[in-house]
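The following record pairs a protein chain with its ligand, pyridoxal-5'-phosphate.
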Amino acid sequence: MKKTLRFNSKTIHGGQEPDKAYGAVMPPIYQTSTFAQKSPGDHKGFEYSRSGNPTRHALEKSLASIENGSFGLAFASGLAAIDAVLKLLKPGDEIISTNDLYGGSYRLFKKIFEDFGLRFHFVGMQDISHISEKINGKTRLIWVETPTNPMMNVIDIAAVSKLAKENNILLAVDNTFATPYLQQPLDLGADIVMHSATKYLGGHSDLVVGALVVRDKELADRLYFIQNASGAVCGPMDSYLLLRGIKTLHVRMQRHCENGEQIARFLQAHPAVEKVFWPGFESHPNHHIARKQMSDFGGMISFVPKGATYEDAVKVVEELKVFTLAESLGGVESLAGHPASMTHASIPKAEREKSGVTDALIRLSVGIEDAEDLKEDLEQALSYLS
Ligand code: PLP
């Protein structure tokens, strides 16, 4: 691409060129493990699909482009991407992480990497002083997820980045919920952007892929070494599907945001609902930060039905008909989940309740259906509580 494109064009053209062989507009699915060589080391740029594959390469360039980065890396899952970041560290190193984060990230930190000598501190990052209190000579990485999953807290990326730079600490931001349509962490000073591309980037609930994007060449080289040496790469078919998904990211996100706002306001006004967590409300404690660093507020919402128990929350999600009860988020179809028994079940009850993930909390990923159908569905499911 010669010209610097705007975001809504980068999703379609960023880093993409017609295929060299026949001019195919979509990169072909190079479903091959290996590539012929004329003589040892004399090949056309690819030798083995773990080290590099043309379809994955096209995806990695698209990822770098939409996140305003220089280098993209695609992994077999979001967790594989996080795993690669943690492998930059050594035993004894310390990490400060958001306390309200995806349960699987917490499990990877606590149950795998703590045994390899890494030490994790989980803090509420809405108050930056909680991060400074934990910084010492061994702190190597700050791990931010914003908006947080599932409490929808918003963390000030620019402020955390300033603190990280002053202390020479790497800053990684899990941008899964916001996507680069809403927020661009590298522009706000982050060193690494991570995605569960399984979610909004893919957008159709038909793949599991992870992504990292960075600007620094040396960091990119170290991550590429880990990607190739550990081997959890994204396959050609998933690379193709994700590229296809990214092309409509901006139009999908626009509708996710519109529907998200309608559903958040509907729930807020509903007599059977006690509390709604959505960063677009002016009353949201971090609304001013969301306004500053996000261009809109997204389609993720959590809420608590009035006076509800664990069983009541389970009943509500079971009764939904248009929302599908399922793990995951970010697809065109609306999904509902019960974090205490699903996405966050791997976090001990006392620990998850400290950050607000109570038994009655319900999480919605608002899709791009007609918002009236979604409201009617919530209305009928909530009626089971009266
Ligand atoms: N980060 C966030 C915010 C997530 O929601 C998820 C999955 O739900 C992950 C990371 C892990 O990604 P994956 O399921 O693609 O491994």
